[in-house]
Amino acid sequence: MRLRGVGAVALLVSAAVHLYLWFDGVRNQSVGPMFLINVVAGVVIAILLLRWEHWVPAFLTAGFGAATLGAFVIASTVGLLGVHTVWAGGSVWTAAIAEVVCIVVGGLLLLHGRSVAPQLTQPAKRHAA
Questions:
Q1: CB-count burial class (<10 Å; 0-12, 13-18, 19+) for 51
Q2: 3-class DSSP state for residue 81?
Q3: Does residue 125 form part of some domain?
Q4: pLDDT (tens digit, 9 = 90+) per residue, 49-73?
């Protein structure tokens, strides 16, 4: 459960940074709506990760981190929807670190889930009445 907590915090940190950047002027750019989607998705996935012990939230956590970090890499290299950015500033590095943590935590949870063998239940013994 501790690993899920770390993942949830990383999701919320990334979501908070994107909300901050949205209010800081990104809302007026072409990628503005994607930043709001990122905020909502980060919060929803964090809740799922804490409340639902299933492989889906782990997969979503890793995917969230990879997609968000990937979009930033694209925006900082070739540009994304006309937006070109750089790897500079505390918010950029905070979000990037949080997204790497999301990828690692999601991956570890997925690997851990595969290594746990399902428990085979023994049929209940009936007592003679």
A1: exposed
A2: coil
A3: no
A4: 999 888 999 999 999 999 999 888 8
